[in-house]
């Protein structure tokens, strides 16, 4: 069968998923614990990437090269950027961009050098399944689809948030991993999709909202969506 990787950056976002696995074996690679087993009878590899683009890219490369996964699904929280993307809403990415990449004037701002593009698309069929799973798992919760931007920054001031919104008006949400995994999956030809629950508005209150949300909601939402996806 198909082997699906389930990735999150932080323990809180994945513990409830790990709790659902009946038979996992733990394997260490690149200093990370990979839990290989089943969820609803499907083969899965569950791993915490840790935070940031490098950590995420390393995790994706090991999942593909060593664990031979056929698709990667990222779950976790993100900061809301789009004007109507509120705390508690869900964002399923259509495409990803690294908001902190800037090789200008050699290459246009945001372009990933030598790729000729600044965005990497999510896998459409997998993202459709993920959006359906989110809607089913969290009835009444608004599910957005669109651009997610990633960078090695926790965006925690209203001024930085406004600057990002002005520079990248299409961006719905900001995280610290998605676009890095999307680039690795593009290189390796592996389908990738990401779902993020909005934990904060990436503004002056972001650090407080983030902590509360992570503790109270993130794990439950991630587990419910992953269960609906594989169930
Ligand atoms: N993940 C959750 N909230 C975030 C924020 N404000 N900035 C970057 N990544 C996030």
UniProtKB/TrEMBL annotation:
Q: Kindly state one GO CC term assigned in the UniProt record.
A: cytosol
Which SUPFAM superfamilies does this entry report, sorted A to Z? Purine and uridine phosphorylases (SSF53167)
Q: Which InterPro entries match?
A: MTA_SAH_Nsdase, Nucleoside_phosphorylase_d, Nucleoside_phosphorylase_sf
Return the CDD domains for the record.
MTAN (cd09008)
Q: What class of enzyme is it?
A: hydrolase
The biological processes this protein is annotated with in GO are: L-methionine salvage from methylthioadenosine; L-methionine salvage from S-adenosylmethionine; nucleoside catabolic process
Q: Which GO terms describe its molecular function?
A: adenosylhomocysteine nucleosidase activity; methylthioadenosine nucleosidase activity
User: Hey, which pathway is this one from?
Assistant: Amino-acid biosynthesis; L-methionine biosynthesis via salvage pathway; S-methyl-5-thio-alpha-D-ribose 1-phosphate from S-methyl-5'-thioadenosine (hydrolase route): step 1/2
**UniProt keyword annotations, A-Z:** Amino-acid biosynthesis, Glycosidase, Hydrolase, Methionine biosynthesis
> Which Enzyme Commission numbers does its entry carry?
3.2.2.9
Start and end residues of each Nucleoside phosphorylase domain: 4-229
Name of the protein described by the UniProt record = adenosylhomocysteine nucleosidase
């Amino acid at each position: 069968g198909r082997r699906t990787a389930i990735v999150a950056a932080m323990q809180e976002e994945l513990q409830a998923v790990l709790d659902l696995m009946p038979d996992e074996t733990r394997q260490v690679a690149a200093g990370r614990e990979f839990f290989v087993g089943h969820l609803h009878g499907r083969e899965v590899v569950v791993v915490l990437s840790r935070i940031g683009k490098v950590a995420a890219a390393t995790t994706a490369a090991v999942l593909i090269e060593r664990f031979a996964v056929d698709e990667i699904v990222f779950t976790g929280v993100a900061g809301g950027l789009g004007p109507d993307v509120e705390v508690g809403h869900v964002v399923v990415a259509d495409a990803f961009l690294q908001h902190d990449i800037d090789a200008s004037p050699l290459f246009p701002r945001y372009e990933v050098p030598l790729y000729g593009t600044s965005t990497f698309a999510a896998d459409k069929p997998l993202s459709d399944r993920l959006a359906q799973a989110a809607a089913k798992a969290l009835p009444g919760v608004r599910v957005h689809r669109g651009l997610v931007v990633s960078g090695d920054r926790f965006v925690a001031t209203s001024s930085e948030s406004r600057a990002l919104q002005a520079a990248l008006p299409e961006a719905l949400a900001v995280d610290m991993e998605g676009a890095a995994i999307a680039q690795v999956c593009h290189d390796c030809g592996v389908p990738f999709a990401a779902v993020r629950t909005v934990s904060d508005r990436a503004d002056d209150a972001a650090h407080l909202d983030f902590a509360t949300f992570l503790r109270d909601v993130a794990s439950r939402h991630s587990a419910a969506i992953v269960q609906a996806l594989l169930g």
